[in-house]
Write a structure and sequence with these properties.
The complex is a heterodimer of chains A (about 120) and B (about 400).
Chain A lengths: L1 H22 L16 E3 L15 H8 L6 H4 L6 H13 L7 H15 L6
Helix pairs in contact in A: 2-5, 4-5
Chain B lengths: L6 E3 H10 L3 H4 L25 E4 L5 E7 L2 E4 L17 E2 L6 E5 L5 E5 L5 E3 L1 H6 L4 E8 L22 E10 H8 L7 E6 L12 E5 H4 L5 E6 L13 E3 L12 E7 L6 H4 L3 E3 L15 E3 L6 E6 L12 E8 L5 E7 L7 E2 L1 E2 L9 E7 L5 E11 L21 E7 L1
Parallel strand pairs in B: 7-15
Antiparallel strand pairs in B: 1-6, 2-3, 3-4, 4-5, 7-8, 9-10, 10-13, 11-12, 11-15, 13-14, 16-17, 18-19, 19-23, 20-21, 20-24, 22-23, 24-25
C-alpha cells in the first residue's frame, strides 16, 4: 500500500503539467516540457484473488484455468446447467486458446457444476 | 521502438508470483467486509455472492466483479452528477496481461497498413501536431446490466454500473489518418492496445471500424478524461473514443492503428461481441438467432439511481427519484416515471444537455400517499423517437434496453 500512496502523490503533479499542455495549441510543434521529462507512469495491482472453492478436481481447475484468470471468474457467476458450463469450457479452449488437455475438460466441468451448478433444464 | 516494449504487463509478474512459493494461493487475503446493494438488482443469494468493494490504484472503492483481469463496477451513487469522476469510472479488461507501466516519453502510437506515410506518434506529437477537440460521451460496456437478464447468462455479472459519462479531450482519428494518407481500397481500420494475451494461442484484443466510421470526424483518440490524464486502468495514456457506440470499441492504451483493405479477422469481431441481427437484439433461449452482427450503436435505456435500496421510505414524505437516461447519439427527448407499475406515467425533469453523445440525468419528486409496496418504473425516448422495449433476452446479455422497474416498500 505504501508504494501506491507514493504513486497517488505524484498524480496531481502530472495532472497539473499535462493538463496545461492540453489546453493550448502549439503550431510550431514544440514539446510541452512535462511530456518530454521522461516520466514513467506505473501502478501496482493489488491482490484481490479471493478463495478458490473446494470441489472435485479442484487441482485440475487450478492448473488449467487459473493461469489466465482468477477464481472470481467462476465465483461471481450464477449457477448454470452442465451444458452451459460445457460450452464455457469449450469456448475457453477453442476461442481463448486455453491449454487444457482433452482429458481434463470434463473434469473441469465436474468442478464447475459442483461449485456453480443447477440441474439440467428441459 | 516497438510499442509493446512500452508496456510492462501484469502477466509477467503474476507468473513470477505463481512460480515463487505457490504465491497465488498463499497470498489470498480476506476482503469483503463492505458490501454494495444497488437499486434495481435482486440477487439470488444462493447462486451469487454479495458483491465486494475493492480499491485499485488511481481508483476509489468500486464493486469487484473480477480481479484478474480486473472488472470493476461503479456504485450508482456516482451517477448523480453529470460527469462520472475518473476514480469512480468502471473498469473492464479482457486479458490478464494489462499494462501497468507506461513510459510517457517513449510511448508511440503506430499508424500503418494501407497508408502513404506510416506514422509513429509520441504523446507530444498528438498534443502538438493535431487540433485538440473535446466531447462529452457515454462509455458503456456491451454487457452493462447483464445480471438483470432472465434466464441468467454467463459473463461479467454487471448491475447498471458498467458505464460512465466523461468529457474526453484529444484528437480526431480522421486527422491522424489524413496525416498518414489513407490509400484507395482501404475498407477498415484495426485497433490494438498494449494489453497482452495470457497464452500464445489467446487472440490479442483487437477491434475494427469501417473506414468511413473511423474518418467521420467524431471518433477520437483521447489523452484526457475530465481534464486529467486517464487512469491506467481506463486506458492511459490514450484510448479510442467511439461516440454513441458500445465501449468494446473504445480500445484502451491504444498503440496501433492499421488501415486494412480486407476485413479484420479476429475472434473479437467474428465470434465475440455479436448480437442477434434484429433491432432489439432479441432471441429466444430455445431458438437462438442464426444471424448475428457485431454489436454497435447503443440503444436507449434509463435507470434509477435514487432511491437506493437502503433508503427508508415513509408515507406522506417527499422524495426525489433520480437516474440517468442513455442512448447512442440522438439525445434524450423525454424521460417518464411511473409509481404504479406502469399504469400511469409522468414526465421527469431533465438535467443539463451536454451534447448528443452524453447521457442525460433526470429527476422527479414523489410523495407516496400511503404505506405499501410500489413498483417504480422509468422509460426514456430519444430525439429520433426511439423508445425502450418491454422484453428482451439474448445469449450474451448485451445492450439491455428494457424498461426497468424497482419495487420499494413505503412504511
Amino acid at each position: 500500500m505504501r508504494h501506491w500512496q507514493t504513486v497517488c502523490a505524484l498524480i496531481p503533479l502530472a495532472i497539473a503539467a499535462t493538463g496545461l499542455a492540453g489546453q493550448s495549441r502549439a503550431p510550431d510543434g514544440s514539446r510541452p516540457a512535462a511530456v518530454a521529462s521522461g516520466k514513467v507512469e506505473r501502478i501496482t495491482l493489488p491482490n484481490y484473488s479471493g478463495e478458490v472453492p473446494k470441489g472435485p478436481n479442484v487441482q485440475v481447475y487450478e492448473k488449467d484455468c487459473l493461469l489466465c484468470h482468477s477464481a472470481r471468474y467462476v465465483t461471481t457467476q450464477p449457477a448454470f446447467s452442465r451444458s452451459t458450463w460445457e460450452k464455457e469450457v469449450k469456448k475457453m479452449v477453442d476461442a481463448y486458446g486455453a491449454t487444457v488437455p482433452e482429458s481434463d475438460q470434463s473434469k473441469i466441468v465436474d468442478y464447475l457444476v459442483a461449485v456453480r451448478g443447477v440441474p439440467e433444464s428441459k | 521502438m516497438l510499442p509493446m516494449q512500452d508496456g510492462h504487463v501484469a502477466r509477467r509478474r503474476f507468473l513470477a508470483t505463481l512460480i515463487s512459493a505457490g504465491g497465488l494461493f498463499a497470498a489470498q487475503r480476506a476482503f469483503g467486509s463492505t458490501f454494495e446493494i444497488e437499486p434495481g438488482l435482486d440477487f439470488d443469494s444462493s447462486s451469487a455472492p454479495a458483491r465486494t468493494l475493492a480499491r485499485y490504484p488511481q481508483k476509489t472503492d468500486l464493486i469487484l466483479l473480477t480481479d484478474r483481469p480486473p472488472q470493476l463496477e461503479t456504485p450508482l451513487r456516482y451517477f448523480e452528477t453529470d460527469l462520472t469522476p475518473n476514480d469512480a469510472f468502471f473498469v473492464r479488461w479482457h486479458l490478464a496481461g494489462i499494462p501497468t507501466r507506461v513510459d510517457v516519453q517513449s510511448f508511440r502510437l503506430e499508424v500503418g497498413g494501407r497508408v502513404n506515410k506510416p506514422l509513429s506518434l509520441s504523446l507530444a506529437d498528438l498534443r502538438t501536431k493535431f487540433e485538440p477537440v473535446s466531447m462529452v460521451a457515454l462509455a458503456q460496456c456491451a454487457g452493462n446490466s447483464r445480471s438483470l437478464f432472465e434466464p441468467r447468462v454467463p459473463g461479467g455479472q454487471w448491475g447498471n454500473g458498467a458505464m460512465g459519462n466523461a468529457r474526453w479531450t484529444g484528437v480526431r482519428l480522421k486527422d491522424v489518418l489524413d496525416a498518414a494518407g489513407v490509400q484507395p481500397g482501404a475498407i477498415q481500420v484495426g485497433l490494438r492496445g498494449l494489453d497482452e494475451p495470457p497464452q500464445p494461442k489467446t487472440p490479442p484484443f483487437e477491434k475494427s471500424l469501417q473506414i468511413d466510421h473511423a474518418r467521420d470526424g467524431e471518433v477520437m483518440i483521447a489523452y484526457e478524461m475530465n481534464g486529467q490524464p486517464l487512469p491506467m486502468l481506463n486506458g492511459f495514456p490514450i484510448r479510442l473514443i467511439v461516440p454513441g457506440w458500445f465501449a468494446t470499441y473504445w480500445v484502451k492504451a491504444l498503440t496501433k492503428v492499421t488501415v486494412l483493405d480486407q476485413p479484420l479477422k479476429t475472434f473479437w469481431m467474428d465470434k465475440a461481441y455479436r448480437i442477434p441481427d434484429n433491432p432489439q437484439a432479441n432471441e429466444d433461449p430455445q431458438h437462438l438467432a442464426e444471424q448475428t452482427v457485431p454489436i454497435n450503436r447503443m440503444p436507449v435505456h434509463s435507470i434509477f439511481v435514487k432511491p437506493d435500496a437502503s433508503e427508508q421510505l415513509r408515507a406522506g414524505q417527499n422524495y426525489e427519484l433520480a437516474g440517468v437516461a442513455t442512448d447512442g447519439g440522438s439525445g434524450i427527448r423525454r424521460v417518464e416515471v411511473s409509481k404504479d407499475g406502469g399504469q400511469s406515467w409522468s414526465q421527469a425533469e431533465l438535467g443539463p444537455d451536454l451534447g448528443r453523445y452524453s447521457w442525460r440525468t433526470w429527476r422527479a419528486s414523489w410523495k407516496p400517499a400511503a404505506k405499501g409496496t410500489y413498483r417504480l418504473m422509468v422509460r426514456a425516448t430519444t430525439n429520433d423517437g426511439e423508445m425502450q422495449v418491454t422484453e428482451q433476452w439474448n445469449r450474451s446479455g448485451y445492450q439491455r434496453d428494457v424498461v426497468e422497474h424497482q419495487d420499494v416498500v413505503v412504511a
